[in-house]
Amino acid sequence: MNTSLYPVEAEFQNRRLDIFLAEVQKDLTRSQIKKWIEQGCVQVNGHLSKAHYKLKAGDRVELSIPAPVASKVESEDIPLDILYEDECLLVLNKSPGMVVHPAPGHSGGTLVNALLNHCKDLQGIGGVERPGIVHRLDRDTSGLLVVAKNLAALNGLARQFKDRTVKKVYLAFVRGRVSPDRGTIATPIGRHKVHRKKMSTQHQGGREAETDYEVLQRGSFFTYLRLFPKTGRTHQLRVHLASIQHPILGDTLYGGKPDPQCPKLERQALHAYRLEFIHPQTGKPLSFEVPLPPDLDRWLQSVSTRNPT
Question: 3-state class of 205 per DSSP?
Fold first, then answer.
């Protein structure tokens, strides 16, 4: 356990305890600090305190950061397509069909299982079940993911996602001919009232969600889109496109009945194409792109010969 002591100067008079610690510990998020306060890892003048405690000049705040909890998830020797790696993070191209972290029904074969084999010191980073995971892609979505390799990187990247400074671009094939060439879908998203595994734009009190789109190509029964999510809600792109009657092809959850004239896709035609963020340690801008994977590229080539733009 790593313990740090912080005397409270006059400038922090009446500052909340959790806010104070978030300011003096730049590498930690406020949510992580509040969790440790609840676990009894923070004392003020030798006594346990609440997150909302208002500090006084002269108080002495002691933070004892607990040792990382070892994950019970087993490592597995699963190949990873790593595009970039240093001591803080790695960026990879996730293959379609790979679940990001263990969940009921998926205890093995996940990205986390593979990461634990590749990064021997990843245990406990970011939680017991999903070490290093900053953001997710659905099982059948391919493309770019960034993974943190230490707590400082995890919190630095999480803050960028929260502040919406990470730039993400996706590619998708959707049903029908989308018009106009560019547009924005700005509809709140919440949990479906009946089907709890689904999200919906019909939920009262849903959270703000916004997606920009750009048409790349049109066929007689499909449109090839570039997507720019401004927020990161669960299933956002899939739900937004379904809400305007242009569901992503191959999406069995939101796509409705298959179009008989559409050649079959074995998974949803969604690919995380570009990812841009600031390195949490060096401050250097990083940008990555991965083209359409072979399965989607083959499908596009096959329909393009029959369905000119």
Answer: coil
CB 29 within 8 A of CB 158: yes
Distance between CA 288 and CA 171 in Å, rounded? Answer: 14
Residue span(s) of the chain under CATH 3.30.2350.10 come to 82-162, 167-304
| Domain span(s) for CATH 3.10.290.10 in the chain | 2-65
CATH code, residues 2-65:
3.10.290.10
**Which CATH architecture describes the domain 167-304?**
2-Layer Sandwich (3.30)
Quote the pTM value.
0.79
Contacts of 135 (CB under 8 A, 6+ apart): 145, 146, 161, 232
Note whether 178 and 218 are within 8 A (CB): yes
Does residue 297 have an active-site annotation? Answer: no
User: If you classify domain 82-162 with CATH, what class do you get?
Assistant: alpha beta
Do 166 and 276 touch, CB atoms closer than 8 A? yes
Per-residue pLDDT tens over the stretch 73-112: 788 999 999 999 999 999 999 999 999 977 766 678 899 9
pLDDT digits (tens, 9 = 90+) for 176-222: 999 999 999 999 999 888 786 789 998 777 889 999 999 999 998 99
Q: Which of 18, 59, 138, 140 is catalytic?
A: 138
